[in-house]
Write a structure and sequence with these properties.
The protein has 333 residues and is of the alpha+beta class. It has 2 domains: 169 residues, 2-Layer Sandwich (Beta-Lactamase); 67 residues. It has 14 helices and 7 strands. The strands form 2 sheets. The chain has a 5-stranded antiparallel β-sheet with strand order 2-1-5-4-3. The longest helix has 30 residues.
């Protein structure tokens, strides 16, 4: 549903009594459509912020411009979260003006277990208003609500999604302590502006935090084995010098870095983990422990009845000339 339809919905719901703010909004809409034939950005700050974000040379500069959006559009805090990376593998997926302590508490108190915002984002496709998602503190003192109130984070606001054809999906969360009615009015008024700035910010975030190529060569089981050992090591420096039976450690590292399009072997570990390669059922022979004994390095032995001797003998399935003892009886050695 677009913002103009929401204005009309408000008008219908007010029945006989029409608020002055609604009348003023309808007049602005009428004038804009009649004069310009469309719905352009209405806040002068939009072009300025979009230019700052587009001209930014670092992610910190993007974050600084992004953090000023709430003030310009009548909110208090803003957060952008990349929900789906679309195969780009990002080193940073969140930009937020919320206090640092909020993210410390978010992890320490496991607020992600019952995050009403994330749950709402996942289950709904359109914009969501926080007063519809976040329980009131007096009625449902859940950990998320308590933590938000403790840090003075407003639990009114709005969430909207942005999506790219590439598969990247992001959500923008605008928090405020102001009334739900004001939230709806501000969002209606500036929806196009906020969407444009969200796309610009997301583009910049992807550009500055991309750590891998969109198309990656497949890793061999030996290379995955190397990354798994490195990920599990308590001493990565020593692990990088480990002996490998399939080439030198330096050569394996170079091959992995080249295939994944990253700058270091540690970024390769991160990407491999995100792709599920370190947990997948791709096993190197060195990771497999057999349950039957091996005899002199031979894996396959066949037992047969010797016609002339009338007793069981062991026959090597491979070239018997290399066998240490062709008359070795089963169960010995």
């Amino acid at each position: 549903m677009n913002w103009f339809a929401e204005v009309l919905d408000d008008l219908i719901s007010q029945s006989e009594r029409i608020e002055l703010d609604t009348i003023a909004e309808l007049r602005r809409v009428r004038d804009r459509i009649s004069q310009e034939g469309g719905l352009p950005s209405r806040n002068p700050a939009t072009e300025i912020l979009a230019s700052r974000i587009g001209d930014a040379e670092t992610l910190d500069q993007v974050a600084e411009a992004f953090g000023t959006i709430p003030v310009e559009f009548g909110f208090d805090e803003i957060t952008l979260i990349i929900l789906n990376e679309g195969g780009r593998y990002l080193s940073r997926r969140v930009l937020s003006s919320l206090p640092d302590q909020w993210w410390v508490d978010y992890h320490a108190l496991r607020l992600f277990d019952r995050d009403p915002l994330i749950e709402g984002i996942i289950t709904r496709e359109h914009e969501l208003f926080l007063d519809e998602l976040v329980p009131k503190a007096e009625n449902a003192p859940m950990p998320y609500t308590r933590a938000a109130h403790a840090l003075g984070i407003g639990t009114n606001g709005v969430i909207f999604k942005i999506a790219y054809p590439s598969g990247v999906v992001a959500a923008v969360i605008l928090n405020t302590k102001r009334s739900p009615q004001l939230v709806r009015s501000q969002y209606r008024k500036y929806r196009e502006d906020l969407m444009a700035l969200a796309f610009a910010t997301c583009d910049a975030l992807i550009h500055f935090s991309r750590i891998g190529a969109t198309t990656m060569a497949d890793l061999s089981c030996e290379e995955i084995h190397f990354l798994r050992l490195l990920a599990l090591s308590e001493d990565p420096g020593s692990a990088l010098k480990m002996d490998v039976s399939f080439g030198s450690a330096a050569t394996v590292q170079m091959q992995i870095v080249r295939k994944l399009g990253v700058k270091s072997i540690f970024q390769a570990v991160l990407i491999a983990a995100r792709r599920g390669l370190l947990d997948a059922a791709i096993f190197h022979p060195n990771e497999v422990i057999g349950t039957r004994p091996r005899i002199a390095g031979w894996d396959v032995l066949q037992v047969f009845e010797a016609e002339t001797e009338g007793r069981k003998r062991v026959e090597f399935a491979e070239d018997p000339s290399a066998a240490p003892d062709q008359n070795l009886a089963p169960g010995r050695g």
